[in-house]
Inverse folding.
């Protein structure tokens, strides 16, 4: 800490000049030589204290003891590689169940080939999805923002995503939202108008998984903002009372 306090802006400049001019360095990253270690330490303390931005002396000492005496878990690079390449996790199992259920629906004839985008570069699929309707109500925002490069929404894709969104709104507060949305979508009778039946299962599966991922991130972000507002109001109210 004492050494960190002795680091000044001038010493950082002198050290950078020495490395650049005398040691033939191409560039110098100064984050670790100009950042006050005390500032880093107090930042860690504030993060560990959660909503309490100004911990009391007992709280500060307790957090300091907890942080300095916690043994961080040690993972080998091979362990991380095994975790990231493990295909048997819960997410993959859910996607495989969704793929199986969609495949069964197509085989039973309860689903007609539908409209959804596919990752593979299928020219026919791309051409079909680019056939948007400029007069559709969903195209109003595109028409206002477009400078000639935006693609108007495909009617069938819009209808399909509207069904997924409606189902998500019903179960967004549940823990198993993914399973419930999939069950709700596949159990209800609706027609998916897609002209290439060989891509139906893969395309529908990709779209549902991708849409739910993005939707859950956006929903979580909005909920976190609400919690921050609630926490801010509670702090304001707490200042009115003597503790």
């Amino acid at each position: 800490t004492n050494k960190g306090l002795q680091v000044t802006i001038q010493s950082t400049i002198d050290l950078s000049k020495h490395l650049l001019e005398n040691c033939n360095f191409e560039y110098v990253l100064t984050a670790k030589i100009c950042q006050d270690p005390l500032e880093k330490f107090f930042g860690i303390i504030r993060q560990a204290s959660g909503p309490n931005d100004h911990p009391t002396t007992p709280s500060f000492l307790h957090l300091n003891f907890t942080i300095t005496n916690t043994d961080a878990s040690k993972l080998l690079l091979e362990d991380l590689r095994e975790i990231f390449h493990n295909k048997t996790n819960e997410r993959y199992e859910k996607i495989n169940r969704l793929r199986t259920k969609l495949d069964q629906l197509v085989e039973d004839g309860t689903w007609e080939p539908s409209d959804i985008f596919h990752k593979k570069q299928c020219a026919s699929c791309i051409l079909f999805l680019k056939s948007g309707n400029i007069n559709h109500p969903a195209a109003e925002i595109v028409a206002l923002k477009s400078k000639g490069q935006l693609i108007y929404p495909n009617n069938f894709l819009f209808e399909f995503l509207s069904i997924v969104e409606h189902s998500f709104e019903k179960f967004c507060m549940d823990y198993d939202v993914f399973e419930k949305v999939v069950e709700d979508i596949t159990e209800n009778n609706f027609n998916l108008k897609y002209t290439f039946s060989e891509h139906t299962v893969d395309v529908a599966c990709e779209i549902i998984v991708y849409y739910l991922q993005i939707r859950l991130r956006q929903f979580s972000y909005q909920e976190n903002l609400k919690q921050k507002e609630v926490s801010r109001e509670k702090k304001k109210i707490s200042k009115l009372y003597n503790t």
Q: What stands out?
A: The chain has two domains: 1-33, 38-110+119-228. The chain has twelve helices and no strands. Residues 109-119 have pLDDT under 50 and may be disordered. Residues 58 and 215 are 42 Å apart (CA to CA).
